[in-house]
Specification:
The complex is a heterodimer.
Chain A lengths: L1 H11 L18 H8 L7 H4 L6 H13 L10 H12 L2
Chain B lengths: L3 H13 L20 H6 L1 E4 L5 E6 L4 E3 L17 E2 L14 E5 L7 E4 H4 L4 E9 L22 E10 H7 L8 E6 L12 E5 H4 L5 E6 L2 E2 L9 E3 L12 E7 L13 E3 L19 E3 L6 E4 L7 E2 L5 E8 L5 E7 L7 E2 L1 E2 L9 E7 L5 E11 L24 E5 L1
Parallel strand pairs in B: 5-14, 18-25
Antiparallel strand pairs in B: 1-2, 2-3, 3-4, 5-6, 7-8, 8-11, 9-10, 9-14, 11-12, 11-13, 15-16, 17-19, 19-23, 20-21, 20-24, 22-23, 24-25
């Protein structure tokens, strides 16, 4: 289901037109789970664009905003790894 | 899918490296150096379909800003006009398939409008600034989250369309109509993501300058600027200028939803705003919707750190604008703000337009000269020297400082 959602999202979205594959997140533990979740709704450049100025609390709030407000279908067990990666690689 | 032509265009651009913009002579930079470091590092110049290379802030949703050099002209070309979307699915809407639904609980006679029918209403033309609420957000100190815009999330165009009040009149608004709800065709990649639905007060909807525009600078709107029809709300920030508009709802109660509250809000009382959107204010909530654009100016022909020669005249050029009252004074300082002199104003294209200005001076001594510009509108509102911080980074009209190196 998640994969289907991802495929449908890509097929319909503007993403098919933009060169967003050029965005490379920093290597590190958690990168794939971050990329796999965030890319469903938006390009990954939102992450470096919003750096470096958020601390761990700021990234935690952002991830929860995506889940609670934007309704991102992120599994609860993936949240710690996502926040860890963002805080470590794109946090202040 | 990406077309072959488009692919070749992009490949050529990538291979060609830097690009020259009109009147520049150097490769455009990615914005002021006080933007977040990651913002500068992740920006690229990229040409979207039908557009010249713009500064990419995010690919999807597409958010691209206009390089400053384009603001040396008072009208921003359609293909250099900034691009700002909230959600990722931006359908191709044809003029033939476009329908506008006009309804809501405060409309007595709901109806649907086609593109041809819209064009039969009396056409109106006006020049107006479309500025993203978050323009200059990236200059906030401390930084705040969002699309980290520099100076270029704005543009000035001649819009042609029908008066919104004429379209609403046919729907026969009831006496209790309070707001007009606005929805465009864009949706989220995830259907559960809140749709980008906005509203404006009925009194603003009935203003004779509020238009449903189908032309921009004498041409159809570019797809990425809202083809076939977008709302024009002169004086107010871009959040209300719904692109690809497909629904107008006359409402007897305030429009709800994330994009009205808590998004797009400013603290009540912090900014000298005349127009308030009071039906969206609630007891105990210290915020109010962002509305009119604050007085602002931009130096367009000089870059920070630029070298000039002692004893040779320097021309300072720029633009000034506000929320539709009209600019009547621009002052320039060349001594770091100690003294100010009046700049010469350019042609008046209407109170919602950019107003060009210019100022000449001759630096005498070698060293650094700090150039500043400050606009004032007919109400006496002017720019600030210190940022009025707010959590969303809105209404940044801090006076610019451009340091020239005199050699």
């Amino acid at each position: 289901m998640r994969m289907l959602f991802l495929l449908v999202g890509c097929a319909l979205s503007f993403g098919a037109l933009a060169d967003e594959s050029a965005v490379k997140l920093k290597d590190g533990p958690g990168r794939d789970v971050v990329a796999g979740n965030c890319v469903m709704c938006h390009s990954l450049d939102y992450i470096p664009m919003n750096s470096v100025f958020l601390d761990r609390k700021g990234w935690d709030a952002t991830v929860h905003k995506m889940i609670n407000v934007m309704k991102a279908p992120i599994r609860e067990q993936d949240v710690p790894a996502i926040v860890d990666y963002l805080a470590k690689n794109y946090g202040k | 899918m990406i077309s072959r032509r488009e692919f070749l265009k992009r490949a050529g651009w990538a291979a060609g490296g830097g690009i020259l913009l009109p009147g520049m002579g150097w490769a455009a930079d990615m914005g002021p150096k006080t933007l977040p470091s990651g913002t500068l590092a992740s920006a690229v110049l990229e040409a979207l379909p039908g557009k010249r290379p713009l500064i990419k802030r995010s690919f999807r949703a597409p958010n691209y800003e206009t390089p400053i050099e384009y603001f040396n002209e008072v009208i921003t070309p359609n293909d250099a006009f900034f691009v700002r979307w909230h959600l990722s699915n931006i359908p191709e809407v044809t003029a033939a398939s476009w329908r506008l639904k006009i309804g809501g609980d405060a409309a007595e006679a709901p109806y649907e409008l086609t593109f041809d029918e819209l064009k039969k209403f009396e056409p109106v033309e006006l020049v107006a600034v479309n500025q993203c609420s978050g323009n200059r957000r990236g200059l906030s100190n401390p930084h705040v989250q969002g699309v980290e815009w520099g100076y270029g999330a704005m543009g000035n165009a001649r819009w042609k369309g029908a008066r919104l009040k004429d379209i609403l009149a046919r729907a026969k608004l009831k006496k209790d109509a309070l707001e007009i709800g606005l929805d465009g065709a864009e949706t989220g990649a995830n259907p559960a993501t809140p749709d980008f639905v906005k509203s404006i007060p009925v009194w603003k909807a009935l203003d004779e300058n509020t238009l449903l525009a189908y032309e921009m600078n004498g041409a159809p709107l570019p797809h990425l600027n809202g083809f076939p029809v977008r709302l024009i709300v002169p004086g107010w920030t871009g959040t209300y200028w719904t692109k690809q508009i497909i629904s107008l709802q006359a409402l007897s109660k305030p429009q709800g939803g994330f994009w009205m509250n808590p998004a797009y809000r400013v603290p009540i009382g912090k900014f000298p705003l005349v127009d308030r959107f009071v039906s969206q204010e609630t007891p105990g909530n210290p915020s109010t919707p962002i509305t009119e654009i604050v007085v602002n100016s931009l130096i367009t022909n000089l870059q920070d750190g630029q070298k000039v020669s002692a004893g040779r005249p320097v021309e300072v050029k720029g633009i000034a604008w506000d929320g539709g009252y009209g600019i009547n004074l621009v002052e320039v300082s060349t001594d770091n703000g100690q003294t100010w002199r009046r700049a010469e104003l350019g042609k008046d294209l209407g109170r919602f337009s950019f107003r060009q200005w210019k100022f000449g001076f001759t630096p005498q001594d070698r060293g650094q000269v700090t150039v500043m510009a400050k606009a004032t509108n007919v109400r006496g509102s002017t720019q600030v020297f210190e940022l009025i911080f707010n959590p969303a980074g809105y209404h940044n009209n801090v006076v610019q400082k451009i340091n020239l190196q005199v050699a």
